[in-house]
């Protein structure tokens, strides 16, 4: 029967003359592994959400391209309705419209979908941590594909030393601070005028044209980000994405967190090795970091029953001591996404209504539209 401390002592007659006296050798006993019975489906669910959302964005982008081409060809090509969902790629417009709504209590008429999508992703982050980044974001999905490819090609990913990693992580918060400051200093009237300017009306077309007619500098930047994402997990997301910084700060208030049971944990450290955010899951009781994206990879690899799980605070005893399974996270994300967007559509507040004649004047010359600055006539 195993004892708490094993002692190994060399017999005195076997000790060499002048040799140091034998020392007591103590070994901590290994914890007994109680394996999980339930099969984990979290990664199948998450990867399905990632692929579905990525394909949806490709579909929306294709429709938007056809819509832009309709006006560029002088209405000679096939007409499709402008997909409002592309405004999800205008997060700054979403922040501006969100402030406009808070101040005026009126839903903005231009790019309202950007605001509703921002509210959706903030809600997901509050309830399910930064799950948007690891379950929905197409950039996050592509980034994950890249670092997983790097693992297969290079047999590993690299991790920056702490003295470099920590200050680099601060860059995304500096970028977020700049955008928040810019939006905060704008009045509701200034936001309305900005959105109604030629630049504001076709900001989405300008974004598309950036990728359609990308220059050498843009290619070098994107190429560098791709290469860095292959060798370093989620390089863009970890160090540069201000949207992820905003969602991470929101997630700090989330009641849902990854929690580790020290009694059930066998200290195998599989969770820490699996974490894409390089968090020390194996040494913490509760994962409170803003870097946690609720990807549940740590939970998926944990072999011990009830050692690691996404759960509510300890005061919540129902259901199952506050444990929230992966299917509930998936269902909650889907309910918030389709619920908020469904409300916006049924209330008639989802779509931007701009006369086709104005688009016909602006879209073919989108690259000539200049970002309005304070004091410009269009902002007066």
Would you give an account of this structure?
- By secondary structure, the protein is an all-alpha fold.
- It has a domain of 67 residues: Alpha-Beta Plaits (2-Layer Sandwich).
- Helices cover 53% and strands 3% of the residues.
- The protein has a three-stranded antiparallel beta sheet, with no helix packed on it.
- Helix 2 crosses helix 3, helix 2 packs across helix 6 and helix 2 crosses helix 7.
- The N and C termini lie far apart (85 Å).
Task: Give a brief rundown of this model.
This protein has helices at residues 42-72, 91-104, 112-128, 131-136, 138-154, 162-184, 188-196, 198-201, 203-212, 216-231, 235-239, 242-251, 270-274, 297-301, 326-346, 356-362, and strands at 257-260, 286-287, 308-311.
What's the structural blueprint in terms of helices and strands?
Elements: H1 42-72, H2 91-104, H3 112-128, H4 131-136, H5 138-154, H6 162-184, H7 188-196, H8 198-201, H9 203-212, H10 216-231, H11 235-239, H12 242-251, E1 257-260, H13 270-274, E2 286-287, H14 297-301, E3 308-311, H15 326-346, H16 356-362
Antiparallel strand pairs: 1-2, 1-3
Notable features of this structure?
380 residues, mainly alpha, Alpha-Beta Plaits, three-stranded antiparallel sheet, disordered N terminus
Average of the residue pLDDT scores: 90
The percentage helix is 40-55%
Percent range for β-strand residues: under 5%
Beta-strand segment tally: 3
Query: What's the overall geometry?
Result: globular
Q: Major sheet: order of its strands? A: 2-1-3
Distance between the termini: 85 Å
Count the DSSP helices.
16
Ranges where pLDDT stays below 50 over 5 or more residues in a row are 1-27
> Radius of gyration in whole Å, from Cα?
26 Å
Sequence of secondary-structure elements: HHHHHHHHHHHHEHEHEHH
How is the main sheet built? 3 strands, antiparallel
Structural class: mainly alpha
What CATH architecture of the domain at 257-323 would you give?
Answer: 2-Layer Sandwich
The CATH class label of the domain at 257-323 is: Alpha Beta
Stated plainly, the CATH topology of the domain at 257-323 is called Alpha-Beta Plaits
């Amino acid at each position: 029967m195993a004892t708490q401390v094993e002692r190994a002592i060399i017999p005195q007659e076997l000790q060499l003359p002048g040799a140091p006296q034998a020392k007591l050798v103590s070994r901590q006993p290994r914890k007994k592994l109680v394996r999980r019975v339930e099969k984990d489906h979290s990664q199948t669910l998450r990867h399905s959400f990632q692929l579905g959302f990525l394909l949806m964005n490709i579909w929306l982008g294709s429709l938007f391209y056809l819509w832009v081409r309709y006006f560029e060809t002088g209405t000679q090509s096939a007409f499709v309705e402008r997909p409002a969902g592309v405004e999800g790629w205008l997060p700054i417009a979403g922040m501006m419209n969100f402030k406009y709504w808070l101040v005026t209590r009126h839903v903005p008429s231009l790019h309202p979908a950007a605001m509703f999508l921002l509210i959706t992703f903030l809600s997901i982050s509050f309830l399910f941590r930064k799950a948007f980044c690891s379950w929905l974001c197409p950039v996050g999905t592509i980034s994950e594909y890249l670092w997983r490819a790097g693992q297969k090609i290079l047999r590993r990913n690299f991790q920056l030393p702490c003295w470099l990693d920590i200050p680099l992580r601060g860059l995304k918060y500096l970028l977020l601070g700049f955008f928040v400051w810019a939006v905060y200093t704008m009045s509701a009237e200034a936001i309305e005028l900005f959105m109604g300017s030629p630049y504001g009306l076709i900001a989405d077309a300008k974004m598309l044209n950036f990728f359609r007619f990308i220059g050498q500098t843009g290619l070098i930047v994107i190429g560098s980000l791709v290469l860095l994402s292959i060798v370093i997990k989620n390089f863009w997301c970890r160090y540069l994405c201000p949207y992820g910084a905003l969602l991470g700060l929101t997630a700090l208030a989330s009641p849902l967190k990854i929690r580790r049971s020290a009694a059930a944990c066998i200290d195998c450290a599989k969770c820490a090795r699996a974490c894409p955010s390089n968090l020390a899951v194996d040494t913490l009781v509760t994962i409170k970091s803003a870097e946690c994206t609720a990807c549940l990879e740590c939970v998926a690899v944990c072999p011990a029953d009830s050692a690691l799980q996404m759960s509510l605070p300890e005061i919540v005893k129902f259901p199952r001591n506050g444990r929230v399974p992966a299917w509930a996270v998936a269902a909650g994300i889907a309910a918030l996404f389709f619920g908020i967007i469904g409300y916006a559509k049924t209330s008639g507040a989802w779509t931007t209504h701009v006369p086709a004649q104005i688009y016909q004047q602006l879209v073919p010359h989108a690259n000539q539209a200049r970002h309005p600055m304070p004091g410009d006539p269009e902002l007066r």
